[in-house]
């Protein structure tokens, strides 16, 4: 017991001495270094918040503390285990945090688009597309007809469009109503909108991970939530049960929107792309002068009704 107490006091003493050395040699470069690390850690924790990665991170912190204590108290077997298992732990971390790492890289790729106002993209054709979508949403809501419409933004939705039927046609309220008409072949899937065109209909969207959704949601709302977490798309949902109109963005749901609220939400948040090439990123996202890529095959799957 006395030995453990002495070892603990030695560790604390070494930490104090090292802290004093750091403060003594502290300069502007060190301050910048600490500030950058602090910002990185903040965004990492923000990225993990509300996901299963939070519990995994806590477990890794516990393992790190055990590893440090094993070295401090000279626990040979435990120290050997941590020392030899560290390389494999790095690979395990990459596998376990794959969704979070993918989302982080995705957000990093969007940095060049931060702060772009809608006015930089607004055109009469796009304003007409917004009006047609809102008109369709109002009519579908009045009839309690379920609908799921995803607006493509900076992150391309070409992979999800490939799971549905290619349309590549100008958007109109009448066409959207016909797509979501009950018992029509495409009514259970999602419509993907790019600029002022409907890219595809009857598309399958990803569902969120288990544990991320803490409230009871229908399949359409869950699919919209999953897409908003996997991309920067803004998704409009009309509930089949209540007829309520919701907009989902970045995992956040805004419910019970009327026509004016919906117009403000969509007009401010969705930049038009007009289905044209938009530099290298636009080419990689499949936005090449309105032409369709090679992903025209339709993948069939079970599409559940929104309850």
CATH class of the largest domain: Alpha Beta
- Name the helicity range: 40-55%
Low-confidence segments: 112-122, 271-285, 287-307
The count of β-strands is 7
| Portion in strands | 5-15%
Which geometry do the CA atoms define? elongated
Q: What is the second-level CATH architecture of the largest domain?
A: 3-Layer(aba) Sandwich
The domain count comes to 2
Report the total helices: 11
Order of SSEs, N→C?
A: HHHHHHEHEHEEHEEEHH
Strand order of the largest sheet: 2-4-3-1-5-6-7
Under CATH, the topology of the largest domain can be stated as YojJ-like (1
Overall SS class? alpha+beta
Gap between N and C termini, in Å?
A: 62 Å
CATH H-level superfamily title of the largest domain: DNA integrity scanning protein, DisA, N-terminal domain
Short précis:
Helix content is 51%, strand content 12%. The chain has helices at residues 2-24, 28-48, 53-72, 76-96, 98-109, 124-142, 158-161, 173-179, 219-230, 259-269, 279-284, and strands spanning 147-151, 165-170, 190-194, 197-203, 234-238, 245-249, 252-254.
Q: How would you describe this structure to a colleague?
A:
With 307 residues, the protein is α+β, with helices and mostly antiparallel strands. The chain folds into two domains: 2-109, no CATH class; 116-284, YojJ-like (1 (3-Layer(aba) Sandwich), CATH 3.40.1700. It contains eleven helices and seven strands. It has helices at residues 2-24, 28-48, 53-72, 76-96, 98-109, 124-142, 158-161, 173-179, 219-230, 259-269, 279-284, and strands at residues 147-151, 165-170, 190-194, 197-203, 234-238, 245-249, 252-254. The chain has a seven-stranded mixed β-sheet, sandwiched between helices. It is elongated and about 75 Å long.
